[in-house]
Amino acid sequence: MKKIICLLLLLVSIGVNAQKGPGKIGIVSYTYRNSFPKNFEATLDTIKALGINNIEFSNLFGQAPEKIRAMLDARGMYCTSYGVSYDDAVNRTHEVGRIAQVLGAEFVRVGYLSLKEPLTAGEAEKIAKNFNTIGGILSSGYDLTFCYHNHGYEFGAYEGGTLFDFMVKKTDPRYVSLELDLLWAHIADVSPAELIKKYPDRFRLMHVKDLKTGTPHGISGKTDINNDVALGTGEVNIPAALKAALKSRIQYYYIEDESTNVNEQVPVSIKYLREKLK
Asked: Which of 75, 80, 156, 165 has its CA at a distance of 20 to 30 angstroms from the CA of residue 194?
């Protein structure tokens, strides 16, 4: 009996009885877009070693979703959100839903619109209509929540607000939720904190990113990748955004670092975010 008790105490001490399920802090796979294609499993191990078990996949890197799920399961890791292109969301909705289910995701998100020219109200309304259709299919057929992730160009002025406000108004909250990217809101001169306060029930996910101090602002949805800096070292008011987020429906906080300095910056960002979300 004493040996059994000692064994149980040992298991607890090494974390066997640690939190089950995905942590609220996650990583976007795009952060490791250069290493996943070279060695998928080793990249998962790197993320796991950082204490993160939650991934938002925006690319499958040539792997079958069933294989990815098996690799995640073997490590006690989770895919909570599956990011796809707008075209795939529109034209392959059922396949997207199937893959997301295999991965074990709760959310499907679209994070970028391939626009040939600046976003217009007419195009925004058409996109919103498509989002309603996509979200309805994913919700009713696959028990998934569809999210749209801002990318800057939606914040052009329109009718006393922005085209982002117009898109939110035109989408059905039953079927379309939102993922807030802090960097892209901030660079468009929109306060992430105020945006969350404006739509506390619509935002469900967050990309936690910081912007190099002094970077030119605009609504192009583009900036040099090395303007992504470790959390807490740039100009985004992250504490204010997180304070607002904790009073909203936001469930997962994904660190995304598009820079070439991922190995140095991501550990700093994880430490910062953990301290702020205590």
From this structure: 80
**In 50-120, which ranges are continuous DSSP H helix?**
65-75, 86-91, 93-103
CATH number of the domain within which 187 lies: 3.20.20.150
The DSSP element (H or E) to which 8 belongs, if any, is helix 2-13
The parent domain of residue 51 ranges over: 24-276
Q: Is residue 6 part of a domain?
A: no
pLDDT over 90 percentage in the chain: 91
The model's pTM: 0.92
User: At how many degrees (to 10) do helices 93-103 and 121-142 cross?
Assistant: 50
pLDDT digits (tens, 9 = 90+) for 104-142: 999 999 999 989 889 999 999 999 999 999 999 999 999
Q: Is residue 261 part of a domain?
A: yes
- Residue 183 inside a domain? The answer is yes
Query: Which contiguous run of DSSP H or E holds residue 203?
Result: strand 203-208
- C-alpha angle 241/245/247, rounded to 5°? 130
Which of 242, 94, 260, 109 has its CA nearest to residue 178?
109
**Cα distance between residue 153 and residue 164, in whole Å:** 9
